[in-house]
Amino acid sequence: MKSLDVDAVRTFVAIADLQSFTRAAEVLETTQGAVSVKLKRLEQNLGRRLVERTPRSVRLSAQGALFLEPARAFLSAHEQALSALSADKRRFVLGIAAHVAGPEVPILLARLNAHDPCLTIEVRLENSRVLLDAFDRGELDAAIIRGDEDRRDGEVLGPEHFGWYAAPQFEHHENTPLRLAALSPACGVRDIATRALDAAGIAWSEVFLGGGSSAVDAAVSAGLATSVFPRRLAPAGTVDIGDRFRLPSLPSSEIVLHSTLTDPKSKAALRTLVCAFREHRGPIQ
């Protein structure tokens, strides 16, 4: 009867997540040659080609795509079996910016828990500035935030593009201030919007300031105001009104990961989080 080698399966999943033998080797703290050997051993054991590799790309074969989720389940079961005999419970405090968090967050946390059942995960949702301050004070182990113009540290996870969103019935007349909804005066996305309006000479007034993201979404969806949203997180039923009302274009930002984690297990958990983040977002438009 065939049996699966844990290290070989872990290597396969890393290759699948990162789509790179080089990056998989870095995450697994081994060599690219060792990664290739372990994958080959797994493929020979299963009698299936799992990864298609060319000089320009690394992608799963049809059999590899079928094997990926069972492979994840196998690794999760292995970790859970080990954790049953371990008292090594660790705490992981993660901050995710409100304008970054999307529907993929529960998937990220589930993937993180499956990777390391001994990890107690705490999540804080705030605006980027608040989380960056908390990170600098040592209150967070990691933070996924909108990039700060004054900071060049951290790992860039991808770009973020913004638009002016409102309900289809939203009305704005050029001789009246644009009605703008925002989370709080400290919100970086609010700053993007107000700076763009000021530079374009467009008068604006703030309505529904604060009250949380649900209040802003409700105000925008009801046609009472417009607001700037990442394009992938615009409230359902809203439309981009930028061209319609000749609103200024908005600069793109970056999504950045900051982390102080150094121990191998926590770093591996963080890498799992990053991989899941990129995988479930797909291309950020």
Automatic annotation (TrEMBL):
Family the UniProt entry places it in: Belongs to the LysR transcriptional regulatory family.
By what name is this protein known?
A: DNA-binding transcriptional LysR family regulator
PANTHER family assigned: HTH-TYPE TRANSCRIPTIONAL REGULATOR LRHA-RELATED, TRANSCRIPTIONAL REGULATOR
Q: Name one GO molecular function term.
A: DNA binding
Q: Which UniProt keywords apply?
A: DNA-binding, Transcription, Transcription regulation
User: Per its UniProt entry, which superkingdom is the organism in?
Assistant: Bacteria
> Domain HTH lysR-type: where?
4-61
Q: Known Pfam families for this protein?
A: HTH_1, LysR_substrate
Species assigned in the record? Brevundimonas faecalis
Show which residues constitute the signal peptide: none
